[in-house]
Amino acid sequence: MRNKVWAIASSVMAAGLLVAGCGGGAATNNTAAGNQTAGQGGTVDLSKASGTVVWAASPITTGTDLRTALIQAFEKSHPNIHVQLQEQSTNTDTNRGSLTTAIGSGSSTPDVYMGDVVWPAQFANSQLALPLDEYLPKDFWDRFSSGLVDGATYQGHIYGAPFFADTAFLFYRKDLLQKAGLPVPTSWEQVEQEAKTLQQKGLVKYGFIWQGASYEGLTCNFMEYLADAGGQVMDSSGNVTINSPQTQKALSFMQDLVQSGVTPKAVVTDQEPQAMSLFDQGQVAFLRNWTYAWNDSQNPQNSKVVGKVGVIPLPTFGGPNGYSCVGGWDLMVNPHTKNLAAALAFVDWMTGPEAQSILAKQFGELPTNKQVAQDPSLKQVSPVFAVLDKVKFVPRPAQTPNYPQVSQAIYSNVNQMLSGSLSVSDTLQKMEQQIKSAVSGGGL
Amino acid sequence: MKPSMGAASVSEAAGERGRDILAPDRRSGYAMMLPAVIVILGVTIFPILYSMWMSLNDVRITLNGFQLSFIGLANYSTLVHSGMFWHSVWFTTYYAVVTVVVELVLGMLIALAIHRVQRLKNLSLVVMLIPWSLITVVSAQMWAYIYNGTYGVLNGILQGLGIIQAPVTWLGSESGAIICTMVADIWKTTPFVVIILLGGLQMISQEYFEAAVMDGANRWQVFWKVTFPLMRSSIALAALFRILQAFGVFDLPFVLTGGGPGTATTSLAILGERSLFQNLHFGVGAAIAVSTVLVVLILSLIFLSAFRGMAEEGA
What we know:
Chain A has 17 helices and 14 strands. Chain A is α/β, with parallel strands linked by helices and 444 residues long. The longest helix of chain B is centred in the first third of the chain and has 34 residues, at 83-116.
């Protein structure tokens, strides 16, 4: 019997260690350090670029694939370059996991990848992205709408070319407001009040839905209320300044939305798809969601509210036109790429007027190229474009390589507060303490 | 493996005739084993040792690959001083103990029932296996739909029956989320326990039961004095498999709650994934993985010695 116990115990050990093996299993391949093109800096001549570029990108659109449309158009204008699409997960964190594992262990592909706008600091710090400003001419960066390049900059270098932007809007039910004789709301307080009225009149089940699950999306929602209240997570020199009356105001408002029943309690498990489907099913009067929500709500296959929806910029406390969180994706280049010229030619074209027009006019994504963004004909594509120039942008505090931990400190505590088991002041204190620990590189 | 085993038994039998004749066989046996050994070393032993080594280092990604600088137990010190880590240890242990115990009890009851009603055995086995054969991410999505606080099926049923008035956000409170995750786990993995226990049950000779009944034992006594002791090894096997799996629980809470609300259902595996693949803190992540192994090892040994005592007492 004793032998048996030890036999089982040792197999437990072996199996258990497998878990550990999987956990830390990233390999230690040394990179081919002498890679011919990247590494020495200096503007690269793109005119003679040829060969293959592997582009890692997660699906952007449902239905017709924007990525393949862009690749086809690119290959037409650059017959010497072939682009191979490497499929990535739609889950941003899974996507990051596979990219860091591949590039961290020295793989030369993908050459170009789509990186979330909150990645540059972390990727720069871990040398997972090439400082593009060293290889592209200075005037390359003039093509982008203001503010976007700053978000891709870390310690003076630019690590990503803004590819397409995304931001949040307030979608509302025109028909319900009309029925109740209510105006389109012009402040957060009015949104809450009108939602309550619509519920009381029995016109709709829920008032206002947004994203309150324990994940990155909640950080975005929180940043908007925080900026509207005049607060910030960190000041410009990186000091944590979140413990303020402004944060208290933002948190109290979010808590009140749930407690007053305007927002269903289930918001604590809602990400974008759940919130969207509640709106599409006609169960809620107001929705905070990203650009795609317009097309989604106007698709008769999944939506019961086609033709009944209006869109405005998110309001602020006591007035209209508040802050919207900056989302979207950059194009980043693998520092181990073996075909830098072709990779940069691809980035150049993808952020140029032709690609950006395809992206905006045919697929309704927000372009990053100034010239395309200012094209007046865009306003006919979607009402979202028509209100875009009134939107004020708030970035997430992603200037630290430890941003993922900062965000976890925000969303896990705000989520706990929304679920009712943490008071506003305790939430504030826990967030401050955990963010401080994260920024200093400590903690979990 | 086979050639060497064959060679060993033949050499024992051949004993006196001398070993030298068989030496070439033995050598070729080892040569044949070599590829398998190399693969195991490469994919199992090396990563294990390497992640142990990583957990003692500050790990950074550089242009020249991973750069390790030895920092001793500093990563472990980070863990020990973090409330989050202890919370995860507590949650994972609690989760493993509760789900494994419930699954064993339920599994035993179902196995006994299936064993007794032989007629429907195949059909019931097939039905039982459906939850087990579903990919966890898929069944977790299904459970997320059942538990959903606005359009969930569970609320629909309970409201229809008049048991609750307003919809409940089942995953929205800490205790609710923990219980709901456990229920989904028990639903999915009890069939696995049933299969193993049923196998053990079928190996017991009918004669033991007949003898016990002839001696005047009632059903309760038959179970505790005959069935249970004879099924020790199957129970231990099922329990150990389940403890190991329950300790690595990731997909269920990942889909159902994302580790929330707050951090209520953040298991060690979710914490490790966050450190490794979101925060890119490889050293700390490796330390979490190694610590998980230690905890699961301790728990398994406690279980084995407790179970041994219990089973011997029963016999």
